[in-house]
Amino acid sequence: MSRNKRISLNKKINPLYIVFCEGETEESYSSFLKQKYRVPIQIKTKVTGQKITDTYIKNYIKEIRKNGISDLDKNYLMYDVDSKEFTDCLNNIKNGILLASNPSIELWFLLHYRNHNSYLESGNCTQSLINLNKTYKKGKLNNELVNVLDTKILDAVNRAKLLIDFNNPSSTIYKFIEELEKIKKKQ
Questions:
Q1: Can you tell me the distance from the alpha carbon of 149 to that of 129, in angstroms, rounded to the nearest whole number?
Q2: Mean pLDDT over residues 40-45, rounded?
């Protein structure tokens, strides 16, 4: 059994942030964040559906970090947690920071537009977003949504922090945004 080779911190290497996610919408959002925050880190996205485990993460990291891993690397898990069984599965993963939205990532998008603090089914959440953004389609970020996601991101962070993590409604995607904001301020 081989051990992971560690990269010396003296050697200049950009940290790698891997965003493991459920589907195309999360992948599109992660790509948007990569473009918005042009910071000295690599952001890679890997769509896994609900087939995410510590072993999956470890094997994927070995595959893409051929020269070893850095202590500065981080793994994020961007998933909808509207199912208790899947939430329990995600909570058992030790090799990642959970960015959970309940009922769905559309709640996170909705928080860019307005506060929301009452229970919401996934379909109703998507419909609420469509009511605010008539051309929204799951899996794609249209120009109007990109503009709102860009200009109202700190509003969404503040609104999400008022909600109780993992309850319906809630989103912890703000933790990733705060990390990116912190890196951006250091530049």
A1: 12
A2: 92
Amino acid at site 106: E
Q: Are 144 and 130 in contact (CB under 8 A)?
A: no
β-pairing verdict for 16-21 and 170-171: unpaired
C-alpha distances out from residue 63 to 66, 69, 139, Å:
6, 11, 26
69-111 pLDDT tens trace = 778 899 999 999 998 899 999 999 999 999 999 999 999 999 9
DSSP label of 140:
B
pTM recorded for the entire structure: 0.90
Other beta carbons within 10 angstroms of residue 56's beta carbon come to: 15
In sign, the C-alpha dihedral spanning 40, 45, 180, 131 is positive
Tokens read off for 178: 């705060």
- Could you identify the residue written with the tokens 């595959």? 63
